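Standup, Tuesday
Yesterday: got the pipeline producing structure tokens again.
Today: sanity-check two examples.
Blockers: none.

Example 1:
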Amino acid sequence: MVFMKGFFGTLISIVQLVAFELDSVRLLFDNNEGSPCNLSWRMILFSTHIVTRALDVAGEMQFLFVSEAALLNLSLLTSDLYAAIFDILTTGLHLTIHFYVAFFLIFAGIVLYEAGPSPANTHGGATPLDIEIRKRKNMGYE
């Protein structure tokens, strides 16, 4: 079911592309003489983007196979944090209080998540196969 992220993401992106960026797409595929980036180079860059996105999704699926979704989400939020730090250092971006609150919440989430036992660890824990359903006489169940 992980492919649903890519499926619905593609549908939403196509709708947004048609609604907001159709002129930019036309410029991408037009043969612009004098442009520093010819059509073949644009197609190479576009294809490279598609391949790297596919590798990203494959990597996320592999990560989910060996770990939990909560840790993946925290990792993705942490990468956004690194992008913001890069913007601060390279462009001198001034951040609002919202950034610092979000940073604290990410940090607290990582600490709380790592403080407890792993939910993926099923040794000694209950699994759906361990649950018994008992029928009661008065409600049709015992």
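Example 2:
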Amino acid sequence: MRTLAVVLKDQAEKQEQDDEIIQVEEETPPGKIKPFRLNVTLKPRDFTQSYRTAKAISFSKPRTVAPIAAKARRGDIFHQLDLNPLSFTTHPAILASFVSEMGLVYPRTITQLTPKNQRAISRAIRRAKMMGIIPSLSRPV
């Protein structure tokens, strides 16, 4: 009759073996075939080439998409108050919230403006830079 200590020791050894096998499986480089694991029941899909071949890791960021027009209208302060962004050309404090530290206009994914107002605010910022109201290469103070 086996004692509890022996059973626990056997289970610990089996767990260590499984951990080593999992580490080997995780370290399989892309394009190589994954090895079969010991003492594991196999399913029919385990024999397919696509399942056994390691997948390449994708490092690309998911593409951010600007909000649809209906959602942008709800978040666009110019649209809600029926204001023309071009009338704020001489107000650097308002334009500063749409300009990055490098002086670039934030994209619509960040500003959450409608396409029409995004173009207008970009035009207002360009005009303010030409007039010297805001600096061209940095954020206005």
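Quick observation on example 2: The helical segments are 4-26, 49-52, 69-75, 77-80, 92-95, 108-111, 115-131. The mean pLDDT is 82.
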